[in-house]
């Protein structure tokens, strides 16, 4: 084979690998897109039937608003080439503006868009059943336009201008960038909106069961499936070594989810005398959130350890936040995404094959993982607080007592999800 022929062959292989990578990222993005259905079902199932339509509307609008605002502004802030405020965020070049027009990169925009919508959706479940729809829409718009893109710009462009990337921070698919950001925003929102009527009586937390646990279970299974795209797609390539790496990421993701569910099941069995269904489902999600940071950096044994820790942690966290802090989170979103997003990020500092404390890397990575995740949490909490303070003084945060008691569906949307049954109406 001549040198010219070899060069042509190499170019052809490079083109094929590039096309395969684009196809893999697009398929992964479709899986992540489908996760929106999973979030919707989990939130509907774990809450009361009179608010099911409102939850559907919030999740749909997270996707719709996120798709438009991230295309128009957010992507430029997150991946732009020009630094603003010393690298606090980015902007697109002046000749392009913020609107995204790079035809050669459409599939990456789609992939990043569905991640952005996921970050916003996490807040929905934590404030379910008492928040004004208009208020939620504004908060969702700010998260997808500013809060999430700014935090994402600190790491994911993977260049020397991203300060956490330069520091050596590891968050493969977003335990902190997506989940801790969403969980932190959810915590602030749940505190500021306040608990549902009847949730806390004489200082005691009263259980308000969800109306459709099968919906919740189906939602978790959809999320589990979508997570293979969430984490596997974050390899951002396919072919050769990338195929092996993506396969490892998917196995690590599955193992962490499985052991997370088993861990939550066993802990609730010991604590309550019976294995709890909703906690077991949240245990699987906790394992998924926890492994998202390190799925490309740890071994299968490390994935099992992270999933085991997060599956147990989510049970303890949900109880603590509900019974001790008296923060009303109907679906456990703060614990699943916020607490386990932070924990999963930090645990990379222990279990990473390259640089982890347990593999002879010392404490440096553990420190970087800790302050990096705390930076995301602090930024999301601050941004959400500022937005909600403004909204509280203008449009208000929560519906009236009458609307909450009757259900948000009929008052906010003029219809009911279950008009013929009125299941669990109060």
From TrEMBL:
Q: Please list the residue ranges annotated as the Ammonium transporter AmtB-like domain.
A: 23-418
Please give the InterPro entries that the UniProt record associates with this protein.
Ammonium/urea_transptr, Ammonium_transpt, Ammonium_transpt_CS, NH4_transpt_AmtB-like_dom, RhesusRHD
- How does the UniProt record describe the way this protein sits in the membrane? Multi-pass membrane protein
First-listed, main subcellular location of the protein, grouped into a coarse class: membrane
What Pfam families has UniProt attached to this entry?
Ammonium_transp
Q: Where are the transmembrane segments?
A: 20-42, 63-89, 109-129, 136-156, 176-194, 206-230, 250-270, 277-294, 300-321, 333-353, 373-391
Q: Which UniProt keywords apply?
A: Ammonia transport, Membrane, Transmembrane, Transmembrane helix, Transport
Question: Is-annotated flag, keyword Transport?
Answer: yes
Q: Is the keyword Signal in the record?
A: no
Where is the protein situated, by its record's location annotation?
Cell membrane; Membrane
Protein family (similarity comment): Belongs to the ammonia transporter channel (TC 1.A.11.2) family.
Which NCBIfam families is this protein grouped with? amt
Could you tell me what this protein is called?
Ammonium transporter
């Amino acid at each position: 084979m001549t040198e010219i022929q070899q060069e042509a062959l190499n170019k052809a292989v490079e083109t094929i690998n590039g096309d395969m990578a684009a196809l893999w990222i697009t398929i992964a993005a479709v899986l992540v897109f489908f996760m929106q259905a999973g979030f919707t079902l989990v939130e509907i199932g774990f809450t009361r039937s009179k608010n099911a339509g409102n939850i559907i509307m919030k999740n749909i609008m997270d996707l719709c608003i996120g798709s438009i605002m991230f295309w128009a502004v957010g992507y430029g802030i997150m991946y732009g080439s020009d630094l603003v405020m010393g690298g606090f965020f980015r902007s697109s070049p002046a000749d392009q503006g913020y609107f995204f027009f790079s035809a050669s990169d459409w599939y990456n925009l789609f992939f990043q868009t569905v991640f952005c919508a996921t970050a916003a959706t996490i807040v929905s479940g934590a404030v379910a059943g008492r928040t004004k729809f208009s208020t939620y829409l504004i908060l969702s718009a700010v998260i997808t336009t500013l809060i999430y893109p700014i935090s994402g710009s600190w790491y994911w462009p993977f260049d020397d201008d991203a300060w956490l990337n330069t520091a050596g921070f590891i968050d493969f698919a977003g335990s902190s960038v997506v989940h801790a950001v969403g969980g932190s925003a959810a915590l602030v929102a749940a505190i500021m909106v306040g608990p549902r009527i009847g949730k806390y009586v004489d200082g005691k937390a009263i259980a308000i069961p969800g109306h459709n646990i099968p919906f919740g279970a189906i939602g978790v299974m959809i999320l589990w499936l979508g997570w293979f795209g969430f984490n596997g797609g974050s390899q951002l390539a396919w072919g050769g070594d990338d195929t092996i790496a993506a396969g490892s990421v998917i196995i690590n993701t599955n193992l962490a989810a499985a052991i997370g569910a088993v861990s939550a099941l066993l802990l609730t069995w010991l604590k309550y005398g019976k294995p709890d269904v909703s906690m077991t489902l949240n245990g699987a999600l906790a394992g998924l959130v926890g492994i998202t940071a390190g799925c490309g950096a740890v071994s299968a044994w490390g994935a099992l350890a992270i999933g085991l820790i997060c599956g147990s942690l989510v049970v303890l966290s949900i109880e603590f936040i509900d019974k001790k802090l008296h923060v009303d989170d109907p679906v456990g979103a703060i614990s699943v995404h916020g607490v386990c997003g932070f924990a999963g990020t930090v645990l990379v500092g222990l279990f990473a094959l390259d640089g982890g404390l347990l593999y002879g890397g010392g404490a440096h990575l553990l420190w970087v993982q800790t302050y990096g995740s705390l930076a995301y949490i602090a930024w999301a909490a601050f941004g959400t607080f500022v937005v909600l303070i403004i909204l509280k003084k203008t449009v208000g945060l929560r519906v009236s007592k009458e609307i909450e008691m009757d259900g948000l569906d009929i008052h906010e949307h003029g219809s009911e999800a279950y008009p013929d049954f009125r299941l669990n109406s109060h």
